[in-house]
Amino acid sequence: MPIIVVKTVKGVVLQSDEQKRELLQKMTDTFVSVVGEVARPYTYCLIEETPMFEWALAGKQLPDFNFLMGPDFKGMHERSDQIMRDYIAAQSGSPAAAAADDDRKAKAVSQWGGVTS
Question: 27 - beta bridge partners?
Fold first, then answer.
């Protein structure tokens, strides 16, 4: 039985019961459009709403719109992006990276009969 869960900050993302009902219907319809009508009677969709300031991003309670739009959060993204770029650059030309990719492909061939994506 598939269970689709959407988690939001209460009162920030979904403003009305009508929006919630529409979202639940469209999530179900989208899932069924991919896997088939056979799944409709078994597809559960849940909306879990967390009260404001009871969840966080990067250690800051949400919603803190000044933080999300400010230079500190932007700087965190820039630092993370640079770490990823450096990692990709280090891996892209290394013999170890090529060997790891070959190992992954060989494992996929043996387990999935040639599917290597």
Answer: none
What is the DSSP track for 56-112?
EETTEES--HHHHHSHHHHHHHHHHHHHHHHHHHHHHT-HHHHHHHHHHHHHHHHHH
- Please give the residue range of the domain that contains residue 3: 1-58
List per-block mean pLDDT (blocks of 10 residues) for the chain, which spans 117 residues: 93 91 97 95 96 89 86 90 85 67 69 55
Q: Could you say which DSSP state residue 114 is in?
A: T
Task: Tell me, yes or no, whether 116 lies in a domain.
Answer: no
User: What local confidence, expressed as pLDDT, does residue 17 receive?
Assistant: 94
Residues 1 and 54 placed together within one structural domain of the fold:
yes
- CA distances from residue 47 to 7, 10, 14, 29, 86 in whole angstroms, order as listed: 6, 10, 10, 16, 38
pTM for the model stands at 0.59
Residue 47 · residue 6 · CB < 8 Å:
yes
